[in-house]
Amino acid sequence: MQQRCAVLDDYQGVAATSADWAALAGEVDVVTFAEHLGTEDELAAALADFDIVVTLRERVPFPASLLARLPRLRLLVASGMRNSVIDFAAAEAHGVTVCGTESSPTPPFELTWALLLGLARGLVPENAALRAGGPWQSTLGADLPGQRLGLLGLGKIGSRVARIGLAFGMDVVAWSQNLTPQRRRRGRRGARGLQAGAAARERLRLGAPGRSGTAPGDCSGRPSCPS
C-alpha cells in the first residue's frame, strides 16, 4: 500500500521545489498543506490518514494527546535539529520515529541586520512616504558606531550578529549560557543575567531557545561570564 506524507505549513508553496521528492515517486503520496492547522482537533482530522508528517520548525506542537490520535503515523520529520514542541517520549511509545534536518544560520542573522539597519535609517517610513507622494527624507537616521548592541543568546546565530556589530564599531553586550571568558576577549562584554542584558542596550536582539535557562524570571543568579 502506498504511504502518505503530509507537509505542514507550506504557505509559500515551495515544498515541492525545495527538495527532491523524485525518489519517493510511486511509493509515497506527498500532500502539502498551505493553511496552518491551529488546533489539535484540526490536526487529528487532517493527518489521520498519513504515515509521515513533515513539520516546519516548532510551529505545530505534537503532544502525547495528538500522537495518540494519529495511529498511522510512523515518521515525524521536523526542519532543524532542535524541537521543544514534540513529545519525544510519547512518540517513542507510539512507535513514531522523529527526525530532524540540517538548517542554516545565515537567513536569521542576515534578516536581523536587515531589520536593525532598516530601523536605524528609517527605511520603512521613508519608503512608504516616497511611494505615497509624501515628504522625502522626513526622518533622521542614526549612526551605529558607538551604540550598544545587546544580544540575548550567543550561539551560531548570535555570534554572527555580534561580529557584524563589532565591524560597525558598536559596543556589543551579550548574555548567554555559552558565553566564556575567551569569547569576551573577542570583543563581547558579558552581562550578568538576562534582565541585565536586556537593560544594557540601545539595540536588542533576542535569539535563545525557550528552555529553563532562558525562561522569563529564571535567570537571576546565573552569571554566564565571571569577571
Please describe the topology of this protein:
Elements: E1 3-7, H1 15-18, E2 28-32, H2 40-47, E3 52-55, H3 64-67, E4 75-78, H4 88-93, E5 97-100, H5 106-121, H6 123-131, E6 148-152, H7 156-167, E7 171-175, H8 181-184, E8 188-190, H9 194-199, E9 203-206
Parallel strand pairs: 1-2, 1-3, 3-4, 4-5, 6-7, 6-9, 7-8
Helix pairs in contact: 5-7
Strand content: 15-25%
User: Which CATH architecture of the largest domain is right?
Assistant: 3-Layer(aba) Sandwich
Uncertain runs are 211-227
Distance between the termini: 63 Å
Spatial order of the strands in the main sheet? 2-1-3-4-5
Structural class determined from secondary elements:
alpha/beta
What's the mean pLDDT score? 83
Helix content: 25-40%
Count of distinct structural domains: 2
What does this structure look like?
The radius of gyration is 22 Å and the shape is extended. Helix 5 (106-121) runs parallel beside helix 7. Residues 211-227 have low confidence and may be disordered. The N and C termini lie far apart (63 Å). The protein has a 5-stranded parallel beta sheet with strand order 2-1-3-4-5. It has 9 helices and 9 strands. It has 227 residues and is an alpha/beta fold. The protein folds into 2 domains: 3-100, Rossmann fold; 106-214, Rossmann fold.
What does this entry show, briefly?
This protein is α/β, with parallel strands linked by helices and 227 residues long.
Characteristics:
five-stranded parallel β-sheet; 9 helices; alpha/beta; Rossmann fold; 30% helix; 2 domains; four-stranded parallel β-sheet; 227 residues; disordered C terminus
